[in-house]
Amino acid sequence: MARLSMSAICVLIFIGDIAKADNNFLTGANDIIAVVDEDGDIKASPFNVQFGKKDIWLPRSGHVVSLEVNEKFVPVGMVLDDEGQAFFDGSSNRQYRFWSALLGLGNPSPIVRTNSATSSQLSRLGLQMGPNPIMYRVTTSSGSIVTTSAVIHLMNNTAKLVVSDIDGTVTRSNIRGMILPALGLSDWKHDGVVELYRKIANQGYQIVYLTNRAIGQSDMTREYIYSLAETPYEMPRGPVLLQVESLLGAFQTEVIKGQPEVNKIAALSRVKGLFPENPLFSGFGNKAWDILAYKALNINPDMIFNVGEDSILISEGTGIPTNYTNLIDRVSFMYPLLDV
After folding, report:
1. What is the number of other CB atoms lying within 10 angstroms of the CB of residue 334?
2. What is the pTM for the complete model shown?
3. Which residues contact 46 (CB under 8 A, 6 or more apart)?
4. What's the rounded Cα separation, in Å, for the pair 133 and 148?
5. What is the DSSP secondary-structure string of 228-288?
6. Which of 4, 117, 198, 254 has the fewest CB atoms within 10 Å, i.e. the most exposed one?
7. How does pLDDT run across 84-123, given as a tens digit for each residue?
8. Which residues pair with 49 in a beta bridge?
């Protein structure tokens, strides 16, 4: 194994140090999985949203975040901490105060600070089955309005989920799959992946896109996924869950620490906990940590597929290689039709 030069080691240490600081320059939000039970009670995955320095450079702590669901303002709000991340806050009549924020006095109390909505709060959002657009809105001290959007996906507690990584799984390469779409070259994908995912969705399964991209890339990531098409098929809509860290923090997790599976296991565990039984039916990934995460969440190894850059898929359970054409032909057998 080649040794790292001293300068390279110093760069990695430097990145590791600054990744611990407030480096959230970009604004973005994760989609939310909400689950309703037979009694009408709703539980949901965290409302992960951050407002970056690009949009709010002044101290962000204490800024009030209003919520708009299905194009209607709702009587539920959040508040920003000093890193620009939003939390539900039990305090009343919260107002942004510049000097309190500047001196670090504007963070919500740890006792009431959470990004998980209560069942009561969720009931006030006016959610409907399926996708519900949500907009987070902040009015800064200068009077400008900053927004970011996501989608709340409301589903029954009997839903079955198929989890897919993005870079190297939907795309044919981790790096090129991330860079080329930003240059307007959005077709660097595996041939057949759109048709396969669409036909799986048509069988009643919910596709969940899980990635180690930083949450500040949420808009770009959604736009990329939903731009993919293979006539007459379009990529199915589904929750897009990104890493709740800055770009540098995401780099530190994947390259320096080398433990990206930790974030994926944590995210999927939160989703799994919303259901009375394990909803995770199948998983697609291209790295060892993807497969490790899926196995840790007790997905049937026969339904876990390791995707190669050559578009060959290997079942973790059987070790048998296959391809998209074969999986497409066997969709009705491998993904039995669900009663939805």
Report:
1. 14
2. 0.83
3. 30, 32, 115, 116, 270
4. 11
5. -EETTEEPPP--EEEESS-HHHHHIIIIIS--HHHHHHHHHHHHHTTSSS--EEEEEESSH
6. 4
7. 999 997 654 455 454 444 444 455 555 567 999 999 999 9
8. 29
